[in-house]
From TrEMBL:
Source organism phylogeny: Bacteria, Bacillati, Actinomycetota, Actinomycetes, Micrococcales
Identification of the protein by name: Cytochrome bc1 complex Rieske iron-sulfur subunit
Region (Disordered): 28-55
Organism: Luteipulveratus mongoliensis
Residue spans crossing the bilayer: 62-83, 103-123, 170-189
GO terms of molecular function: 2 iron, 2 sulfur cluster binding; metal ion binding; monooxygenase activity; oxidoreductase activity, acting on paired donors, with incorporation or reduction of molecular oxygen
Keyword Iron-sulfur on entry: yes
Membrane topology: Multi-pass membrane protein
Cellular localisation: Cell membrane
UniProt cross-references to Pfam families, sorted A to Z: QcrA_N, Rieske
Length: 367
């Protein structure tokens, strides 16, 4: 049809509604303006509609697919705990890949596939496939409409045969219910390990080679970054040492340990030290303090030799080393914790125990 014909008024094609099969308007050969609604094609019955044995077969197939989903979900949960996350598997066309990821992906995929295929097969073989015309109407919420909606729901439940086929009802319930397990596992499992007391202790609290919290050798104070031990005689008046615990590089997460266990070591005139405990926890005026600022955790690395003040470069909190590192300026609210040290038989400085309080931000002092 030409563009000119499309723009012609309906009367020019004939105003009456014609059947699709009647084709062109008699006499002109043009298409009519409107066609009669041809309606739905006649409904073709499926096997299961007339044959109860075929319907039962479909029911078992649907339940089998939901069952497959349940097995795959259980496999997911087992794999989550049973497979080491460092284990590697070799797959054709992919090569070496993480075994746990493969197992979780395949089992979760099968679990979802089982539910999906079961639902599709159920809809195609057992649910009613008769097309229904719903008359359009103005949106309304009167009692009649509500009643109608309930009837539709009832009708849907009836024609899907879920009421008459408990096997499908329960297997679908089981498959969907179990499908929540992987989601919950991911949520809880991905939170990572519990911190226990990791946040309030440092490597200084442990000894080298100790077993079950007993025995072992005290950790020496080691230069950062050289990793060499420090003799008492190395620490002269006015010198500053940045210190890490001996054996820090053998720990599982050295960087995490470092951000908690960093220490600054200086020698003061003993007569300047105001607190007896501070004197007792040092050796001949050599004192060690946590280097982690109690404001928000920056390393407090600036030592003023004349004033014996320690400065944090982030927000200028200032700590007085002669008075147990109390805060004399800035936003920090808590003194830097002191590390109790002594000298071992070979003359090297060692830590007697961990810090008496958590290092870092004053968060620990809240409520
Ligand atoms: S982190 Fe040290 S003053 Fe803010």
């Amino acid at each position: 049809m030409s563009e000119h014909d499309q723009n012609l008024p309906a009367e020019s094609h004939g105003s009456s509604v014609v059947n699709l099969a009647d084709g062109h308007v008699e006499g002109t050969g043009q298409l009519p303006a409107r066609f009669e609604n041809p309606g739905f094609p006649p409904h073709v019955h499926r096997h299961g509609d007339d044959d109860e044995a075929a319907a039962r077969r479909s029911e078992r197939q649907v339940a089998g697919l939901f069952g497959m989903s349940m097995l795959a979900t259980v496999a997911f949960a087992v794999a989550y705990f049973a497979i080491d996350d460092n284990e590697v598997v070799s797959l054709p066309m992919i090569g070496e890949t993480n075994a746990l990821h493969v197992a979780l992906g395949v089992s979760l995929g099968l679990s979802l596939l089982g539910i999906g295929l079961g639902a599709v097969h159920w809809a195609k073989t057992l649910m009613s496939d008769e097309e229904i015309v719903e008359e359009r109407h103005v949106l309304r919420s009167d009692d009649e409409a509500r009643q109608g909606a309930l009837e539709v729901v009832d009708y849907g439940a009836e024609t899907s045969q879920i009421k008459r086929r408990p096997l499908i009802k329960y297997s679908l319930g089981g498959a969907l219910g179990l499908f929540a397990v992987p989601l919950g596992l991911q949520l809880v499992g991905s939170l990572g390990p519990l911190p226990h007391n990791d946040l309030s202790t440092t490597l200084w609290s442990t000894r080298i080679g100790q077993r079950d919290g007993k025995g072992g050798k005290k950790r020496r104070l080691m230069r950062d970054p050289e990793g060499t031990a420090i003799r008492l005689s190395d620490v002269t008046l006015g010198s500053v040492f940045h210190v890490l615990p001996e054996g820090i590089n053998e720990t599982k997460e050295p960087l995490n340990e470092k951000v908690k266990a960093s220490v600054i070591l200086v020698r003061l005139e003993e007569s300047l030290i105001k607190s007896q405990r501070q004197r007792d926890w040092g050796v001949d005026g050599v004192v060690a303090y946590s280097k982690i600022c109690t404001h928000v955790g920056c390393p407090v690395g600036l030592y003023e030799q004349q004033t014996h003040h320690l400065l944090c470069p982030c927000h200028q909190s200032t700590f007085d080393m002669t008075e147990d590192c109390k805060v004399i300026f800035g936003p920090a609210k808590r003194p830097l914790p002191q590390l109790k040290i002594s000298v071992d038989t070979e003359g090297y400085l060692q830590a007697d125990q961990g810090f008496a309080e958590p290092v870092g931000p004053s968060f620990w002092e809240r409520g």
